[in-house]
Amino acid sequence: MAEVVVLAYSGGLDTSVALKWLQVERGFDVVALSVDVGQQEDLEAVRTRALATGAIAAEVVDARDAFADDYIARAIKADARYENRYPLVSSLSRPLISERLVEVARRYGASAVAHGCTGKGNDQVRFEVALAALAPDLTVLAPVRDWGMNREDTIEYGRAHGVTLTQSKENPYSIDQNLWGRAVECGEMEDPWAAPPSDVWAYTAGGLASLPDQVVIGFEQGVPVSLDGERLPLAALVDRLNRIAGSWQVGRIDMVENRRVGIKSREVYEAPAAVVLLEAHRQLEDITLEREVAHAKIELGLRWATLVYDGLWFSPLKHAIDAFIDEASKPVTGEVRVRFAPNAFWVDGRRSPSSLYDYELATYASEDRFRHGDAEGFVRIFGLGIRTWAERQGGLRP
């Protein structure tokens, strides 16, 4: 009886060929696992494709609410953007998929799990480090990394073994998508000077101005809970905001990022809801967080995003930063008004029952109660070090 391996199966080129390769070249019985994280695909068709390719079983797990509540919510509270731009589209789903891989592997008595990542990608790190934390006894296989085939060879291997392919030499894009966004790479976009072809867009390809030009987003302790006063589960809220912001072509990100493996990679993302929610959340923090907490949270949010990008969701440092973020998020309750225009959005209103914004301290009108006379001594003490330096060492200036 053949050993069983559970493969994280998307139904794309690499995982479809990997399924066949694990059977033909390694002699495994393969269980295909597809995790629904809101990727807007017909996952029943994906399941059927896996069975047709030779899987002994194919499972589809609905994890949309878990992805939103346990992963996206934390990313929003952390204001998480890798290199201050990328909203962790693919990064967030990998630890969740790893958890489900382990669960299914235990049910089938599998000795191994597998992924379809390449040797130069970030996802191999994310899967394997997460799996090492969750189930160090399981063997992790990486057929795409092991077989040594380039993309053209992979396509030919699939065709030779009767694998139904969703990618071809004429359509070379590699696409990963979920509720939080969509990532596209490969093809002509591997030249960072080449503009993205118009056919790469999906979440932001709708007609301009087809949906409302403003929304009011309600937050409770840093987590979005409502749109225009209607309470919604987070998954439904993100989905609706994806459609609204996407219709204005908001959320396109074209960047060259620094991968964990040491190379620069040109990536194109669509993340309409993500960019809007992250900005709205940051602006609500502007009126609810004390200055030192706000500054520390910016630094720790960047660190948190890097940890998650690098595959360290289950690391002790990430968990420690989570504790800080949870504490800092307690007063982040209120509403933010966002307006849209073609290819643009901005926040033009924010309010909170725990706001630290004091009109009588901020205003220059007659209601002003700021004690201006106190400022002279404050400024003198604050600048004392610089004054002393200028008097004693001022001649050292270039």
UniProtKB/TrEMBL annotation:
ATP binds at residues 8-16, 116. It is an enzyme of class 6 (ligase). One of its GO terms (cellular component) is cytoplasm. The keyword Membrane does not apply. It holds the Pfam family Arginosuc_synth. Residues 173-388 form the Arginosuccinate synthase C-terminal domain. The keyword tRNA processing does not apply. L-citrulline binds at residues 86, 91, 122, 126, 174, 257, 269. Transmembrane segments: none annotated. Keywords: Amino-acid biosynthesis, Arginine biosynthesis, ATP-binding, Cytoplasm, Ligase, Nucleotide-binding. Pathway: Amino-acid biosynthesis; L-arginine biosynthesis; L-arginine from L-ornithine and carbamoyl phosphate: step 2/3. L-aspartate binds at residues 118, 122-123. Its main location: cytoplasm. Residues 5-163 form the Arginosuccinate synthase-like N-terminal domain. It catalyses: L-citrulline + L-aspartate + ATP = 2-(N(omega)-L-arginino)succinate + AMP + diphosphate + H(+). GO terms for biological process: argininosuccinate metabolic process; L-arginine biosynthetic process; urea cycle. Its EC number is 6.3.4.5. One of its GO terms (molecular function) is argininosuccinate synthase activity. It is found in: Cytoplasm. Belongs to the argininosuccinate synthase family. Type 1 subfamily. Homotetramer. PANTHER family: ARGININOSUCCINATE SYNTHASE (PTHR11587). This is Argininosuccinate synthase. It comes from Acidimicrobium ferrooxidans (strain DSM 10331 / JCM 15462 / NBRC 103882 / ICP). The gene is argG.
